[in-house]
Amino acid sequence: MATRSEVARRAGVSEATVSRVLNGVGPVREGTRKKVLEAARELDYHLNAVAASFARGRSGNLGVVLPHVPKVRLFSTYYFSEILSGIGEAVREGGYGLLLLHRHPSELYDYPSLFRSRRVDACIVLGASDLPEETAGIALAAGQGLPLCLVDHYYNELQISSVAADHRSGSREAVRHLLAGGAKRIGFLNGSPYYATSRLRLEGYADALAEAGITLDKRLLYQGNYSRKSGYELAGIIHRDRMAGRIDALFAANDRMAIGLIQGLREHEPRVQDLPLVGCDDSDAARLSDPPLTTVQVPFYDMGRLAAARLLEQLGEDGGTVFQEVLPTNLIIRQSSQPVVE
User: Fold this and answer.
1) Residue 282 resides in a domain
2) How far is the C-alpha of 114 from the C-alpha of 125, rounded, in Å?
3) Which CATH number characterizes residue 40's domain?
4) What's this model's pTM, rounded to 2 decimal places?
5) Tens-level pLDDT at each residue, the chain (342 residues)
6) CATH assignment of the domain containing 197
7) In a domain, 242, yes or no
8) Residue 34: which domain range?
9) Going by fewer Cβ within 10 Å, which terminus of the chain is more open, N or C?
10) Cα–Cα nearest to 18, from 49, 47, 60, 59
């Protein structure tokens, strides 16, 4: 009876690659897959599926753990839907299943149990934060070297894989754009400080002001929670500061808050376009808002796909090192940052 090593020699690949192809684990080039299958057929090599499953000790599932936020439809938000779409595409290509799980942000989540019970072979965490319970759960997984990856968050003190966007650079470009348009007193509407994205966007905002020789004014830092409602509710305060001459442009850390702000400002004054405004994400709503929203385009789909592909690739290699990927952003200029001149 032929062996796996003989199949590998016939196909001109490694035994690990033969294992990935025959077990349907991890991404493999189509040409390589065909060579392996042809070599196995020529040598009459048959994989014992039951024995292979026990030998691998795997479930065939990639887990995605999302935060449970009551009354918030996570799957309808652009952020989560785009990341999940990218993850789903990589999982489909890799021949894996997808298991969605929820955690409560204020409770310690037992990631190791997912692996002990063989519910998942690898895990992606979405919406991670610096809340103590969340950090403790991730630290426990990192300490055991589990195949786990964070999307759009990181912990400097932990050795754990992550895929994120270059939010600092994106924010810097957004504020530079407003400065180039003549603004000098630029406000910043940020999300929760527990998220790495909030810190990075604040740093980018500060970078651009420092480059222009402008001292950061903490009175122009507004605190939202990434929801449209939080932007809407801050409209009165921002309108007051604008009328007092303290602010002449604004950068919002996501599109939802920016659009909520536009809606709120319209209740105070009809000409909201007089306040140059930039959002962040490039969601579908940004294109349809009135006025169309200038925004920092974030590659959420690519982030999800890359995170899943890297994890599945490591499973096919029976392990791997921690990886940290940072994808570029892009400023999309639309009408909201261009005030009407009469």
Assistant:
1) yes
2) 13
3) 1.10.260.40
4) 0.80
5) 567 778 888 889 887 787 777 766 556 777 887 888 888 888 877 654 334 443 456 778 999 999 886 665 665 688 999 999 999 999 988 888 999 999 988 889 999 999 888 889 999 999 999 999 999 999 988 888 889 999 999 898 889 999 999 999 999 999 999 999 999 999 999 999 999 999 999 999 999 999 999 999 999 999 999 999 999 999 999 999 999 999 999 999 999 999 999 999 988 876 656 799 999 999 999 999 989 999 999 999 999 999 999 999 888 665 568 899 999 999 999 999 986 444
6) 3.40.50.2300
7) yes
8) 4-56
9) C
10) 47
Q: Whole-angstrom Cα distance, residue 155 to residue 256?
A: 26
Q: Do the domain assignments include residue 50? A: yes
Helix (H, G, I), strand (E, B) or coil at 227: coil
Tokens 């294109």 correspond to: 287
H-helix segments, 43-190? 49-56, 78-94, 111-116, 132-143, 167-180
Number of domains in the chain: 2
